[in-house]
Amino acid sequence: MEYKTAVSFPKDFFWSAATAAYQYEGAYVEDGKTLSVVDKNINPHYADTSVASDHYHHFKEDIALMKELGMTAYRFSISWPRVLPNGRGKVNKKGIDFYKDLVSELRKNGIEPLATIYHFDLPASLQDAYGGWSSRQIIDDFAYYCKILFEHLGDQVKYWFTINEQSNMFLLPYLMEFDADTPLEKQKYEMNHIMTLAHAKAITLCREMIPDAKIGPAIGLSPNYPKTCHPEDIQAARNANDFRSYLFTDLYVHGIYRLNIWRYMKENGVAPTIEKGDMELLQSAKPDFLGINYYQSRVVKYAPDTMKNKEMKINANGKKGETEFEIIPGIYQGSTNPYLEKTDWDWEIDPIGLRTLLNELNDRYHLPIIITENGMGAVDELTADEKVHDDYRIDYLRKHLEQCRLAIGDGVQLFGYCPWSFMDLLSTTSGFRKRYGFVYVNRTDEDLKDLRRIKKDSFYWYQKVIETNGKQL
Ligand code: BGP
Known about the structure:
The chain is α/β, with parallel strands linked by helices. It is 38% helix and 12% strand. The mean pLDDT is 96.
């Protein structure tokens, strides 16, 4: 439904863009930083995290570009092993100082810092010490890490994201390290429970230490559509939404496990261990908002019990048609959407799906929402006269922003938009081949070149969007 009267973006809307430490900073063992699990496990066919976009050494220049773009907020993540090289214990002064300098430079330029506490980069030392997220020991270590951040940055940072895409860690197991001797599914549900407890502790601490700050999760979500109107497919779509979205959001917002999922976990011997006080902690730590990473919608259909379980295989090469869908017998199986265009990585482009998702979440939770990621990965070409004509990206972002505007008209309390990504950075799956930024970084997977920053056509487009507060899309 379109509205006849123009709906505008709120006056104080956060026009932002996002990055994450391991994909953007580089300097991965510099000034006391140690390796994270993602530094160790990144796709070996592409560039590693050692230099990335070298933001660590270019942050002032990069913030000047943010300012030129007109950004009023910036979502970045903090590297746990840069702040605490052993994951716990002694604080690395140079590490925490880097974030203090970053935040004060942002403030100087009138840009609101939106900080993600955890974006996949668990200190490898904690993985080695006790298996990282598989042990409840991590809850106290995570709380200690949060305490350090709130202590040092709490006067300057008033928006915090606890954990990035807890939901996707289920689909993309390479983001975590698992124990070869325990069934994978059991480990995932156990880790999910432990992570949610860590998230809840972070919220509790934030309330105590920075009462004027706001805090919530950043969740990777896609609405799941039924392949047909066959009731079995409709039920499969409900299942997919429960298992891939509402499992996480109900835990975050209401502190409960949905009964159907709880029964599934119990019957299959994969239920997490719940200790005394766990559910009370979860129920007491309601987030202030939901951060949503949205890239695509998904289609699912009925999966008979007789099928064999299959993990999803993502397309990491950018050659269309390489994705293999997951199958959970009796629950759902993935499929394609014949009505949607796809990126070269098979991600289905669905701006309307974003409006659908925002409305679903608003109906369910009545919380303010910020889009913490949304963007289009592509192979960009630098022309001989040093331009990048990324009209496909402009088209993608424009259509998604148009749906955000409509969702605001529907009543969704949307307060910000952080396209992924501010600048080209290392793609989690596909190195520097797959670019997302408004600013081109002059390097490839094989050749670091001069890492020069070059504004793409989309930079000038987004600049105009911000200048007109979204009137001119
Ligand atoms: C999200 C992550 C980001 C980013 C993005 C794009 O899942 O939070 O870190 O990587 O997806 O994904 P990719 O780099 O695989 O294209």
